[in-house]
Amino acid sequence: DQCTLPDIPQLDVCESIDITRNQTIIDGNCTHNKIYRRCFTATDQAGLTVTACQEICVYDNSVPQLHNAPASESYDCSAKVPSPSDLLLTDNCDGDKLVSPTSDKSVGPPTCYVRTVTYSGADNCSNPYYHQYVITVTDKGTPTISVPSDATDECGQTPTSVPQGTPSDNCFNFGAASVTGVYDPSQSHYNPLTCT
């Protein structure tokens, strides 16, 4: 912006002095970095002159600020895990805006994983901002399974069907349990069935 140049008092005690003012703006390496060069030239009635200059350096070296940035947290897989959101970024020269995560990476299965969320960037004068937080989701609940009651059969009787077990877990949906063993009637007495 163009600055108003101040009045300069006349210092010649013998005669009036004519004072001219000139300002030059030199752009820096970014939008807000500038040098204001102000020169004042005094000329008396004899044509004698003197010039004095002033330089004002304006620069932006303030780091932008992220507000309400989340901290790293741990959650059980049964809890509602919050999703990353846009954050308010304020800057003394560029103003305020909302910024989204620049990186969002998860490692691990859906019920037990580590999610790393990163916000990073810079303002118009390359002053950087950076924030990273980690969401850790764990599964500490032991699965359970409901199976049919034990039964005793006479020797030589063959089970006609094997009922399914019913597993449950606080985070994972198993569906029905499967049978991995098979009754073998060629065995003389007993062959257990193994379910998973």
List keywords for this structure.
single chain; 196 residues; mainly beta; four-stranded mixed sheet; three-stranded antiparallel sheet; rod-shaped; disordered C terminus
Would you kindly provide a written description of the structure presented here, covering whatever features stand out?
There is one protein chain. The two termini are 76 Å apart. This protein has no helices and twelve strands. Helix content is 0%, strand content 40%. By secondary structure, it is an all-beta fold. Strand 9 and strand 10 (128-138) form a beta hairpin. Residues 188-196 have low confidence and may be disordered. The chain has strands at residues 18-27, 34-43, 49-58, 65-67, 73-76, 87-91, 95-99, 103-107, 113-122, 128-138, 144-146, 166-168. It is rod-shaped. A four-stranded mixed sheet has the order 5-10-9-8, with no helix packed on it. A three-stranded antiparallel sheet has the order 1-2-3, with no helix packed on it.
